[in-house]
Design a protein that fits this description.
Order of helices and strands: HEHE
Strand content: 15-25%
Number of strands: 2
Helix content: 10-25%
Bound molecules: zinc ion
Distance between the termini: 64 Å
Largest sheet: 2 strands, antiparallel
Strand order of the largest sheet: 1-2
Shape: flat
C-alpha cells in the first residue's frame, strides 16, 4: 500500500534515460560474424593484444588562434607487449613516414 508507484509516463522516461545512458556508454554493437574477421597483430612483435593509448599532439597558438599552445589527444591502439603502434592504427594524417619530428615510443 505504501509502495511508491511511478506514473506511467515517468517510468517511460526513466527507461528512455537508461537506454540513452547505455547507448552513450557502449559503442553500437555491430552485427558481425567474428569468424569472418581477421586478427590484427603487432607489426613489431606479432602480439595480438592491444591496449588504448593516446598520442599527444601540440597545436601551436598560431594554429589555434588562442593565447597558448594546445594539447590535442589522439586515441590509438598500441601493442600491450612492446607498445608499438601499428601504422594502420594511426590517424591517416599522421601516417606519413617523413613525420620524424615526433617519435612514438
Ligand atoms: Zn608488439
Amino acid at each position: 500500500m505504501d509502495r511508491m508507484v511511478l506514473p506511467n509516463y515517468l517510468q517511460h522516461r526513466l527507461l528512455n534515460n537508461k537506454k540513452q545512458f547505455m547507448q552513450q556508454q557502449q559503442p553500437p554493437k555491430l552485427n558481425i560474424d567474428l569468424k569472418k574477421t581477421t586478427p590484427f597483430t603487432c607489426d613489431e612483435c606479432g602480439n595480438n593484444v592491444f591496449q588504448e593509448g593516446v598520442l599527444l599532439r601540440k597545436a601551436s597558438k598560431f594554429l589555434t588562434g588562442t593565447m597558448q599552445d594546445a594539447i590535442v589527444p589522439v586515441p590509438v591502439f598500441c601493442c600491450s607487449k612492446c607498445g608499438h603502434v601499428n601504422e594502420s592504427f594511426m590517424p591517416p594524417d599522421l601516417r606519413s613516414a617523413d613525420d620524424t619530428e615526433d617519435t612514438i615510443l
